[in-house]
Amino acid sequence: MSAPERRRPGANSPIRLTANVEPVRTGVEAPVTPESPRRESTPAEPMKEATIPTTVALREGLKRRAQTAVLHTAALPGGYRSFAALVDGALERELERLANEHNGSVPFEPNAGGFRTGRPFGS
Predict the structure, then answer these.
(1) Which of 37, 73, 106, 110 is least enclosed, having the fewest CB within 10 Å?
(2) At what angle do helices 83-102 and 60-73 cross, to 10 degrees?
(3) How far, in Å, CA of 42 to CA of 89, rounded?
(4) Does residue 61 sit within a domain?
(5) Against a cut of 0.70, is the pTM above it?
(6) pLDDT tens digits in sequence order for the chain, 123 residues long
(7) Is residue 104 part of a domain?
């Protein structure tokens, strides 16, 4: 028994043999050269700082909507590539709003002491 003859699609075939190259975002910046100046940080790319694991309880619907937003916008300008990056960006914007409204537009200093845990006051 012989193998079937292999044929290439003809000119009238709906199959196209042209490459469709798409950009790939790996999270690694291209090297900076005189022709390509360093980019400024954007909300999707915050300044690099040590991260710490943090556990918070979120409403299930809110978390799922946020995850969907990340999945749909990760490759778009202004989108976030991860859930953690979305949460980080949202906290930055909210802290800026709170500082503008309640702290004379001065950013809040990082907490150097302990932080109360447990049930909130008045609950």
Answers:
(1) 110
(2) 110
(3) 10
(4) no
(5) no
(6) 677 777 766 667 777 667 777 777 776 665 555 555 544 445 555 567 888 898 899 999 999 999 999 999 999 999 999 999 999 999 999 999 999 999 999 999 988 888 777 777 776
(7) yes
